[in-house]
Structure formats: structure tokens, C-alpha cells
Amino acid sequence: MQSLPAELLEMIGKCIALDNADEDCETVRRSSLHALTLSCRKFHQIFEPLLYYHLDLGFLHPLNTARVNLIIRLWRNPEIANWVRSLRLYWSSGEPIPLDDASHEDYERIVYFVSRVLDVLFTPEDFTKLMWRHSLLEDWSLEAWLGLLFVPLTHLESIEFDNYGTASRFCDILYKAARREKPFHEDPPFPFLRKVVANCGEEGHGIHERFITPFFYLPNVQSVTGRALWAANRQDDEHHKRAFELPPTSGPVRFISFEQVWRCTGMVNWLNACRELEHFSVEASVPIDSMDIGDPFNTRDLYQALLPFKKTLKSLSIRYDWHYNYCLDMNSGLGASQDNFPFQSFQEFSALEHLTVRHAHLLRVSPDSPVEESSLGRLVDRLPRSLQIFVIQDVLRDSSRLISELLVVVQNQCLFPHLKRLELIDKYADDPPPSEDESSDWVSSTIDEQVNIDLESITILARECDARGIDLVWDMGEDTESETVSETESETEIETESEAENAWH
């Protein structure tokens, strides 16, 4: 093995360091790398940096005395901190660090380190300095210590969060970096960081939008993805607005994809922070234990925020999950005109290839909608010529006008020469609310009624699609059959989104 080229040995080491197939094997992976470093001088030079390539402080690898000492070592040795390229972090609200095995000497060293580090992070008059000292040395806050870990990792390329609850100390660091405040006032912060993933695996909990927003202002972040997010409330008081104020600049983020966004009105703040967005995907949701939608989804504000990306946006996906739809129907049905306000024309979005929107966001379906049908115009006149994949979610029982509009789109192939897939997904095609009360019966009856579609119109549309080589799929859910013309491209949509995301990873 010693005769192998150094480049190949480094590739082998990275495969070991980044093997995430089984998180329980983290200790084995690190032991394997450590054993290689002890084999010979050549292996030590190649594999020692890879011991630090990926730091996993996720749920199965909590912070302890040894890892606090690692944080101290990274601060004192910038060349070692530069070896860290990938980071995974986990914390829960108010969780302290278990330091049962710490000696008196450990405590003295930690106290001295904290005093020196706080002088680096804050000016003498900054009152936040005292709050940090309390969090680090009295509360032994896991979140605060992970915030300290993050600061010296200037060569970090990707970071993944799985946290919930308070993140005020980590937010302090992120907003300092976004504002170029001390200690980030001299050099661009985290210039190699390209990928940010934020998930929350705790049922009913989520990460707040304000925690993610600063990443949009870092110099090289390209991709921001995740699930279970609390969107910022429009009614935030002035104190919060000032505390989380960011500079009026835009960043290089091009790929945004989030599922289960609660209180979602369109994520306009994130869009305003982008320069050349290429992919935007958001799924509005409601917490499973709630029926309150809160602020309605605002397609008008979202459309205005998307206009600067008419020449760059390649993929757009706006969806409601089943619980959001359920709450919308149970609360006010089609009368929720704001949630069902149609988008304006996408015709000028010259790069848009993949479009996923709801039936109600295409056509006027609400009788009390403030928009007039005449002002929308025909669907064929509102779609981009670049369109390749067109997915319509939450198709309503009365879909005759939608089918009629789509028939015109398909028949005018000269206007959409690249269109190769048309997919219609019935409302509640995904899993209905798992409840044993009367609401389940209500949803089941709703699904049964939706099957009553105009099969003759569908047959005509399918024939026209088949004649033009367009793959038509109608997804009615698990309990009904899906009409399809061709199955050879059944995974085209998934592959398209995956390829787009991989471009930034």
C-alpha cells in the first residue's frame, strides 16, 4: 500500500473519513485513520489531516471533556483547524455539556481559554461578552461551545445542523460573520463554505429562519437545504428586527430547498438576499399538533421577489403538504383566497425548465378571489418556452378547465418545444391525516369525490401528449390507479432536482 500514489491514498482516506452509511461506525472510522497515521511517516503526513476532515458532533457523538479540549486545540492551532472541511452539529434547548470526568487542571485550563477567546470575539464594551461567559462557564451550554468550535474553521466547506430550541449564542456568531464584525472584520468569513444543511429530527420542533438567514450573506455559500423550519413572523417586534438586522447586500446562494416550512409566507427575505438564484423549492406546512395556518402564503409577494431571477431560475417548486391542505380546507375551504391566489405570468422566465405549482396557484379557483380571470389570461400565454417538466399539485375535483387549458398548451408544441413531462397530482394524493376521529372520514370522502374526474377529457389530453412524445402522469394517490402514457421517464423529475442540487455540493 505504501507504493500507491499519494493522491490515491488521500482519496482512500477521504472515503473512510466521509463514510456516513452507518453513524455508529464513527469510532471505527477514526480508529482506522489513526492506525494508518501510525504506520509510517508517509502515511502520517497523508492521513493525519483526514482525521480532522469531517468532525461529527451529531446526536450520537455529544460534546464532552475530550471534545472541549479539541476545541481549545483548534483555536490554538489554526493550521489544524484548516484541515476541517465538513462539520455536523447537534444540540437541544438548554442542554449542558457533561464534564464529570474533568479534572481541576482541566477546569483551570478551560477558564483561562474562555477568557482569552472572549477577548477575541468581543470588544470590551460589548455587553454580550458577559452573557457568553455565563453560558460557557456556568451553564456549560452545549450550543455556546459549538459556536466557539465553528469560529476558527476558516476552511470549512459544508456544515450540517440537527438542532432545536434556542440558538442565541450560535446566532451571535453567525450575525457577526454576516455583518463583518469582530472577529470577522479583517478577512471574508468562511470563504470556502458552500453547502449548508439544516434539519430538525424532533417531532413538532423546528429550526428558526433567523438562524439560517446569515448564511445567505457569507461570501461563497451556494446551497441551503433542510426541513422543519419556523419562518419569521411578520409581527416580530422592533427589538427582534434590530437584533437580527443584516446589511443590504446579496450573496451567491443559488440553490434553496426546504420541506415542512411552518408559518411560511414565501421566504421572501431569503430571495432578497440572492443574486443569481437557480433553484427554489419550498413546502409550506403546519405543525402536526396545530390547525392554525397563521399568516397565509403570499404568492404575490413571492412572485415579485422572483422577478430578479427571470434569466437564471431553472427550477421552481411551490407546494403545500397534506396537513397544510387539510387545515386550509377545514378552516375555510376555497374561501381562503390569499392561500389560493394564482401566480402571474412565468413567460419571461427564460431559463425555467422545471415548474411545480398547485392547481389553485395556476387558475382562479376561489369564488371570492380578488383576481379576475381576464387579468390572468390563458395558461398557454403564461408559461416559459424553456419548460421541460410541468408538475401541478393539489388538483381539485373540478379539473375540467385545467384540462382544457393544458390541452391548449400541449397542442401548441411549437411554443414549448422542450416539454417532455406533464404530471398532475390530486389533492391528498399523499398520506391523509393519520387520525381515527371524524376528520379521517371527512378526508376519505373527499378523496373518493376527487376520483370523479372527466375521463373523456383526460383521454384526449393523454392522446395529444402521446402524439407529441410528452410523458403524462396523473397521480390519484395510493388507493387509485395512475394514468400514464410512458413509464420510461418516470424518474425524470427526481433526477432533474438531484442533478441541480449536486451541482452545488
CA(first)-CA(last) distance: 30 Å
Number of strands: 14
Number of helices: 19
Q: Flag low-confidence runs.
A: 438-452, 485-494
Report the portion of residues in β strands.
15-25%
Mean pLDDT: 82
Domain unit count: 2
Name the shape in a single word: elongated
Instruction: Provide the helix percentage.
Output: 25-40%
Structural class: alpha/beta
Major sheet characteristics: 14 strands, mixed
Radius of gyration: 26 Å
Overall description:
The chain is an alpha/beta fold and 505 residues long. The protein contains 19 helices and 14 strands. It has helices at 6-17, 26-37, 41-51, 65-76, 78-81, 104-121, 128-137, 142-150, 168-179, 209-212, 238-243, 268-272, 299-306, 322-331, 373-376, 400-411, 438-450, 455-467, 492-502, and strands at residues 54-57, 86-91, 158-163, 195-199, 207-208, 223-230, 255-262, 279-285, 315-320, 354-358, 389-395, 421-426, 471-475, 483-484. The longest helix is centred in the first third of the chain and has 18 residues, at 104-121. Strands 1, 2, 3, 4, 5, 6, 7, 8, 9, 10, 11, 12, 13 and 14 form a 14-stranded mixed sheet that branches. Mean pLDDT is 82; it is low at 438-452 and 485-494. Strand 6 (223-230), helix 11 and strand 7 form a beta-alpha-beta unit. It has two domains: 1-51; 55-502, no CATH class. The relative contact order is 0.06. Helix content is 37%, strand content 15%.
